[in-house]
Structures
1.
Amino acid sequence: MAATERSDRAGAIIAAALALPGVCAHAENAPEHGVVAVKYLHYQDSQPGLQRIRVEAPSLYVLAPLGSRWSVEGSAVYDSVSGATPRYHTAISGATPHMTEERKAGDVKVTRYNERSSFGVGVSHSSERDYKSTAGSFEAGFTSDDGNRTWNFGLGYASDTIGSTNDATLHESRRTAEAQVGVTQAWSANDLFQLNLTYVGGRGYFSDPYKEPDIRPRKRDEAIVLVRWNHYFDGAGATLRSAYRFYRDSFRINAHTLGAEWVQQVGSMVTVTPSVRLYTQSAASFYFDPVYDPDVGAPYPPGYFTNPPQYISPDQRLSAFGAVTVGLKLGVQITPDWTTDLKAEHYEQRGSWRVGGTGSPGLDPFRATFVQVGVAKRF
Amino acid sequence: MPRPVSTPRLGRLARSLVLCVAVCAATAASALDAGAAAPELNLPGLSDAVNLAALKGKVVYVDFWASWCGPCKQSFPFMNDLQARYRSDGLEIVAINVDAKRGDADRFLADVPARFAIAFDAKGETARRFDVKAMPSSVLIDRTGKVVAMHKGFRDEDRKELELRIAQALAAK
Amino acid sequence: MSRPLRFVRSAFAALLAAGACSGCAFNPPQPWEKGNLARQEMTMGGDPLDQRFVQHIYGSKENASGGYGVGGGGCGCN
């Protein structure tokens, strides 16, 4: 992703600690099979009149059981990012910087499985020219005797350093700590529920050095509630996977995410999965609309120099908007050990699509298309 | 059964959690202690019916399996081996399938050959009688029809212990 | 309504809506009834590389991110 719009997210620590593939996604089972998978992402986003960011990213994933009580899992990705992003709001100008960027990231996790519990330790690292992040995580899972309920606990810590290709003197950093509690319940023979509560505390530099003017608080606390539900329809041979997430942070942003996908078995080898995702967020308390000072002009809001605000940002990502993603995935099980998949998604974000309030005015709609193609082998 | 601490607006989720605790507590006591008489087992098999009472005098190793259970794939070659080596000593392996759909079991058996008796318990009534707590589960029954031991799950390192118990049960008078 | 109350209401409404559908009575399965829960698409996590890409994309285009994490529970082999 553009250096200006990277995912500065320690939650990725625990998010990367994903459920293991395999027959029984159970906290206490070492996986029965190893997996090697490769996947390629092509991503292109735009706003009217401007192709923005393009990303080409190959990635690799390996899961290896070590005996019946241990497993190791890791992934690596290499992003080639190129393009331009507005310096403020969605303003296109000759000064819109065009750049190319590389991002390398990897993560490794080791998990120990006992009779009714499991413990995992993971590290991850991501680096680009102007941004480096190192993170560690620890998780524990405890399953009831009947195997129907699992409690999960996770802790994560990340340390980031931030620079700027525009300003060689910028050396900033931030630290983020994260704690998560979750429970997964087999509700019936065809239903699985999960509830996760996460709290994140971040301290340090959160501003975007490529946006002007951009001064953000040196602290960001987040609270997240996630509910997920998987339901199997015996008659149709299909699974409905749905999720709702509530997010709120100390920038005063509230966000709701609602997603659903329908995994339809077609014959014995093919699955077709249409998906839809709805997102809405409120604006950060220090986001300002594209209304500029009549004397000084863009990008400064009225009164910026006579009465300077403590915090301010013109970043579209902090505005109030709604977004919709529609997607379709095709999976083919070529042999019991080989699978291949192809997924295409289209994303659109508009101020007017905000739910539960007025969207931020004056911003161009933002669109993105991303396609993933992958192959996996089980061994 | 624990008494729920309730307010008039006790949420559905909280009520469900209390119910689950009650259900879990009620089933904590195992019906299959060592030395108890084995529960009734009378099920359709691949060709003939399988009846535990008719197998008195043999040592019977009952295994509950399903097509969706990964460790079951590994336990079948182990059971093939045991049945071949100890058949003449009086070991009878009975593998009870609990798949809801017979087609799934047939597909599994086409992939993973079984050279021991197979029985079908699609409704899970026999599994319930045997108080199955994990998949797979195996129950070792001695020549007098009493339960020797019950084993939950199947891991590579379980083989030695399982075979030892079988050998001891075969040797016992 | 105050913000904390709205917060609780959103999460709880989601739970109720999920639990209120017919045919979704709370009836945790016996160990031998977990065949459907064992299906690949019933895991909570999903495709690991797909999830990594998609969470990274949304994290850089929207403000909310995270909240996911380990899946599990309900299947019961071993």
2.
Amino acid sequence: MIAFLQQIVSGSAVGIVYALVALGFVMVHKATQVFNFAQGELMMLGAFVAYTFIVLFGLPFWLGGVIAIASVALFGAALDRILLRRMVGTKPFTIFMLTVGIGFCIRSIVMLVPIWGTETYSLPSPLQGKVFSLGGLIISADHAVILLTAALVTAALFAFFQFTRLGLAMRAISQNSLAASYLGVRVDSLFSIVWALSAAAAALAGVMLAPLSFVHSDMGQIGLKAIPAAVLGGFDSLPGALVGGLIIGIVEALAGFYLPEGVKDVAAYIVLLVVLAVKPRGLFGHADVKKV
Amino acid sequence: MALLDVHDLSVQFGGLKAVDGVSFSVNDNEILAIIGPNGAGKTTIFNMISRIYMPSRGSITFSGRELTSLRSDELPRLGLARTFQNIELFAGTTVLSNILLGCHVHRRTGLVSELLFLPVARRQESAFRAQVDELVEFLDLATYLHAEITSLPYGVRKAVELARALAIRPKLLLLDEPSSGLNVDETRRVGELIGRIRDRYRTAIVMVEHDMSLVNRVSDRVLALDAGRVMAEGSPEEIRNNDAVKSAYLGAADA
Amino acid sequence: MSRKSDAAAAGPARSGPRTTIAGLLGWQRWLGMVALIALAVLPWLHSGYWLSQLTFVAIYAIAGFGLQILLGFAGQVSLGQAAFLASGAYACAYVERIGLGAPLGFLAAIAVATALGLLVALPALRMSGLYLAIATMSFGFIVEEVASRWTSVTGGNAGITVPAIRIGGMSLGQPWQIYYLSWAFFLVVFLLSANLLRTPAGRAMVAIRDSEIAARSSGIRVSRIKGVAFGLSAAFAGLAGALYGHALGFISPDQFTIAMSLDLLVMILIGGLGTLRGVIFGSVFLVVSPELFQQLIGLFTAGNTEVAGLRPFLFGFSLIFVLLFQPNGIDALVTRAGEWLATARSR
């Protein structure tokens, strides 16, 4: 029983990382209908920037993390301004392929930068090794901080979208950007803000994931596991992404503990296929009926 | 026996009764116009006949077959074709391809003979192509044959959609607002065209229309709808003089 | 910028379909002839590196035709084609390793891959766009994992060697033999794909891509045609996988990853989505350009050409460039060049 609960706890921590990346997917898709395949690469970029400032330049962990998140957020906004802006009105598949290209470029540039390259690096957190015990369960301080941070971030984002004027404007542009712009909403700037927030979420995920595993140019693939999380939660729901991420993380941990070797690596995708087989438009999706 | 027999057709969207107990029939070679204000349920009836919507009540009988148990892709084989209000063409390909797709219902070859382009597939392509050429000549589309759909003017697109529907060799053709978006001249030509289609291809035609001059010139009978119900049915002259129709649709002041 | 606006500017009538041999313009037929002769003669002039590169051009093109049929014609997004290549490669290798010979091996490759493709088609029929892409991507990851774990058949992560092709008593293990075999299969697959486009099944796929509602109202059975698209695309991918295994002599799960699926996707888009020529251009680009790019970089970095990251950078940058400025790919560029040449010569 203890072992089972232990898996739930450690699975939740990884799940939260997935949830943060998934939040980014969902935010961008909700606002712009774009599936950003480079989300995982943005997470990887955040981890590398954090590594550079924390390990190479010796800054405190929290400061390096903030710099990483801020710089990747700016990068996300720049991507929107420079590249994605030009693709407004094109087919969703074309824009998706553009994000595939962007992902390739981010990954390759990381591989080509001399101080980064294809090596594996470790980024220890200041809480490394500290654990506390809760009724027989060992909870590492890292995990606890991750859980807390992510819960706060999700709550903050949700409150932002739900209760602030800026958030309301963003929901408006996701429903009908043309009408919103006629009502005076600065649609362009808001799109950039959404991309910045989404990139920031990915970077935060990278900063939190790095101490748990490592920093490497292939990290982006972990980000792909956030896609099942987003689909589970319903691709247009922020709290859903959090729940979806947690579920995927926990399922993975349990699969790694109880099921044969290798199932853990694809558990997320098996869950996804099962969900899509039953509900081809995602858990909460509805059919797009074309009016003729 | 009527070619098309619609009986007590009804459908509800949420709480709204879009179509309520509509009944009418169409005979071979007949031209029936369905008129009514916006929201009267005209296109909804078409969408039920062509099986895009499922009626909540009623039956649709075509050539003796009950349509409500069929899928929309089974209708062309029975001889039922339609055009759409907003023109549903295959926008990523050419005019020729679009019309050839109308011939799909006459396909007798299987995947293997097509992949290997066996003589039977070759002969079928020639036959299809001859059919297309005939329609292209009939609808004056020769200059546009290899053009991409996206480069075409609106009137030409409507003609292509019509050609594609005619390639099915339908016994009944459903035309959804054939004159919408066309000017007076083009509308007049559409009227002549509809008459010629009926004469040449022996097709019955049901059309949803707003242009009363076209309706009066071309139709054998007119069905007037309002708020999902049948208001009146009769010859164009009878409908023109019907008081209820006049006040609901044509405006009580003029006739 | 787009080919559509070109057509509008030039007037409604344009040249005929570019995708059948009969439809190719005169100078393109000559170019095709020259290319075929050059390809046929190559092994006599040169062996080694370029021979193997061009073998892979043929192999990727075969897989590419499969993806073009599924995505370019039928409009179904697949991020998991590598799974079908893997199933073909492993099926063929397995059959040959237990001594049943190459013809049966290739047959098994096509059969297993097709079966898998039809299996994927069943749930895929109800999915579209985003969810279909995600589902096929997941399928790819799962197959990759299965290949790692099913050690008795696939040899696991260590991989397995692929025996030389044995037909009757003959052994076709030489690079030039694989080269001719691959190009022979390429021609067959090209012809099948060209035939598909000019017959009802292929046209129906394009119809489904452009408007499912209109397709249904024209009597097309959408489910069945989608199934054909998935099946054919998997069959071609399986064949490509079998050839791939023989060309390398060795297969392992880490060759058939999402990277390969993405490479195929990038190849189709850069070459030209929706055309057969685009597959050929894309395949040449995929195989040849990394080499050229590395030589180019080598000029600047004083000989150190083996830098990781150049290939994804080249592909990413090219893809972004193409999507921003010429979304219809190299194929559209070639068409434009041909039209320009035609008008220049008529003056």
